[in-house]
Sequence to fold (448 residues):
Amino acid sequence: MKQNSQTTNQITEGSIWKPLLLFFFPIVLGTLFQQLYNTVDAVVVGRFVGKEALAAVGGSSGQIINLVVGFFVGLSSGASVIISQFYGAKDAVNLNRTLHTALAFSIIGSIVVTLAGLFATPTLLRLMNTPEELMADSKLYLQIYFSGILFIFIYNVGSAILRAVGDSKRPLYYLIVCCVLNVVLDIALIVLFGMGVAGAAIATLASQAVSSILILRRLAISQEMYRFEFRQLRIYKKELLRILKIGLPAGFQSAMYAVTNIIIQAALNSFGTDCVAAWAAFGKIDALCWMIMGAMGISVTTFVGQNYGARKFDRMKKSVSIGLGFSLVFSVAIAAVFLVFGDRLFLLFTAEDSVIKIGMIMLRNMAPYYWMFVFVEILSGALRGTGDVLIPTIITSLGVCVIRILWIIFVLPMRNTVETVMFTYPLTWSVTALAFLIYYWKRQKRWI
Fold:
């Protein structure tokens, strides 16, 4: 189906800053509501079940989930980039094949991940030094979560497709509906029926199932070139190779992030349940910053990708500059709010003074340096929009992941404190940001 030639594409035409913000805000709000799935779980179990349940939902199990889901979301970004380029070039045939290949691949991938997750969960939890008192609940939460991973994969691929063609509003609407459903189910299953962490996992999966159905329905009724039809659902070899060429490095990069976080989680687990609970709560608070920067990174990727397909290189560069400016302002503002109201934010998750005290140590050692990561997120997103993913992946893997691992292995034993663990973040952000600035400066000279 051909795109309506009378429709003005604001991503490739006119001013940049206004459509960039209009595209960005639905994404960040959608990401916020998606994050609320797990945050509500943490709030309800932390306040109504206890700090052990909070640690089980957001500790080792949370890091394992981030590893699996993050890798697949990174992998599916290959489809998002290619679709945005085909959409900008008005290539309906290749866009349609890429869309159906991405959705078929998500179904196959979810089956593999479900089976692997169900069997590997106990081993992974033990390898992470998960405290014994958290093992049973952590295992239960993960196994229920993996059982419904299909819905999470389909939603993420479907929403990435809509955003790639410039529709960031509908994924937001669907998430608002499903987040409300998640809150209702959390209260019913955890508070009223006393199902604990099992109730939290079931509520999340039921809500994700609804969101995935809504996404598929939207794609199925679309009259644009990105319409989904079940009878066309198959793997097209050429399109799959294109997706993997861009998606595999991005997935590997996300997995490396998750692996280093798992190593850091294992280090923090050795400090006891209070520290694990504090890190779980801080992770939910800290996620607000990453949601905003990640949303701007997605926005810049889409703007760069479509303009790259339309061969409008000057707009590509302007999109990156504007995205950097907005993100720096947002990151400084968020850090200020966290530093002023941090202790009150922790009270949402727990009333334990010992947990809040450790959480504030974590916050004060990370929040002032959020602005450094802006350059990593935005510049890597811009490069991804052009299909340049291999070198950025290497930069991130070395600058963030390898340095963190070496720090934990060699430096932490010499000064075994929470502050030492936290210092890995600003250290690696600064090194990686500098590397990206140099690489981007060289690459953008070719966009003429």
